[in-house]
Design brief:
By secondary structure, this protein is an alpha/beta fold. It is 20% helix and 32% strand. It contains seven helices and 23 strands.
Length: 390
């Protein structure tokens, strides 16, 4: 059995915030926190001892890295919003989502600190930690790949009074949904949260084999103030948990509270219910983090001037969504194989660990381009072969 490192509050703060910047949340866990660890607040009011303003490095709604800030009051409101959609109030949290990610921080660590309940970070490879209490009402903060753990460790859930499995509302595979739905006889409910770091939790729904519409949280409003049924529109929200307002072109958008343009296209099915229908851009969500495929494509075209690149979205059983890198260049087989390896290495060095291609393909023909010369896709008659590097 793997030992679980128990942290004091001082150790926790030292580990999750940047050295020398006690209110700047790390963008990646240090090596010391990559193995399972725990924190038990007990009855101590540790939540109020967090920094008054917390800075996050985030992909945001655009998929391009930036830094935003949330006041501790806003974090408190996030916890209250998420608590309101729990089927049962939990008395323990297990999180597969790292606390360096907004979803893992708001819905996992901050949730546990605010409610004074035990928190444990677990890795997907090691699974659900040991059962250490009776009358257990467990909250699992999941990632898309966590369905494998849920299937494997279902016996550890059978003795719980109740289990809520919380998932960030990005693309979720059928395998994940099936794994959660199959646990209904063990008093397990799945809840999905749709949101962003800038806006916080925007909407929620229950995990179901037949997906329900999303329902807005009660403290958020839609801008402009109209929700015509069957009209496809960008979702813009305003509320006390939103960060500083963004510049907008629509003169109709006026509100005293900050607002956030999500970049997501929605169709309202009721006054506060909607269905997600796509994106205005080429942003996909990988394990809860938005990733701009155009940004990836631009990076590769800048890094490797001897080749051209097109990055295409693709479904991914583990991460919910992923991408495939297509490249075209001239040269011998040796040159192509070497470039193939360098592409993978560059992505590994430049981007977070979960941002990796499902495949890297060598394209035998140039790519389709716009009149301005921008690469827009593969040619319809293209034959694209994966490079054999064995």
């Amino acid at each position: 059995m793997t030992d679980v490192r128990a942290l004091s509050f001082d150790e926790l703060v030292e580990e999750i915030f940047e050295p020398g910047s006690p209110n700047f949340l790390r963008s990646e866990f240090p090596d010391s926190l990559r193995s399972p660890w725990s924190f038990d607040a007990g009855a101590e009011p540790f939540f109020s001892r967090l920094p008054g303003t917390i800075y996050f490095s985030t992909s945001g709604s655009t998929g391009r890295p930036k830094v935003i800030s949330k006041t501790l009051r806003q974090v408190d409101l996030e916890v209250a919003a998420v608590s309101g959609c729990m089927p049962e109030p939990p008395n323990e949290v297990i999180s597969f989502a790292p606390a360096t990610h907004a979803f893992g921080f708001f819905c996992g660590l901050a949730f546990a600190l605010r409610h004074g309940i035990p928190y444990q970070y677990c890795t997907i490879s090691l699974g659900i930690g040991p059962i250490n209490r009776s009358e257990r009402k467990l909250l699992i903060v999941a990632l898309p790949a966590a369905y494998k753990v849920i299937e494997r460790d279902r016996d550890k859930l059978s003795g719980n009074d109740h289990t809520t499995i919380l998932q960030s509302g990005g693309p979720i595979s059928t395998a994940y949904v099936d794994a959660v739905v199959d646990l209904a006889d063990l008093a397990v409910n799945g809840v999905e949260i749709y949101g962003s770091t800038e806006a916080g939790a925007i909407a929620h729904r229950r995990t179901s084999s037949f997906p329900n519409d999303w329902e807005l949280f009660s403290d958020l409003e839609v801008l402009p103030n109209r929700t015509e049924a069957d009209l496809l529109t960008e979702l813009i929200v305003s509320g006390p948990r939103c960060v500083q307002p963004r510049t907008v072109s629509a003169e109709a958008i006026t509100n005293a509270l900050p607002h956030v343009r999500t970049g997501d296209l929605v169709r309202f099915t009721g006054e506060r219910q909607f269905a997600l229908c796509g994106r205005l851009d080429r942003v996909i969500q990988i394990n809860g983090a938005n990733t701009d495929l155009d940004f990836l494509q631009e990076f590769l075209n800048r890094r490797f001037s001897q080749a051209e690149f097109y990055v295409a979205a693709a479904s991914d059983t583990l991460r919910g969504a992923g991408f495939v890198v297509h490249f075209h260049c001239r040269g011998s087989r040796f040159v192509i194989q070497r470039l193939w390896r360098e592409i993978g290495r560059a992505l590994h060095e430049e981007f977070p660990r979960n941002v990796y291609p499902l495949e890297i393909h060598y394209s035998t023909s140039p790519f389709r381009k716009s009149s301005a010369g921008k690469i827009t896709g593969l040619l319809s008659a293209e034959v694209s072969n994966r490079v054999d590097v064995a």
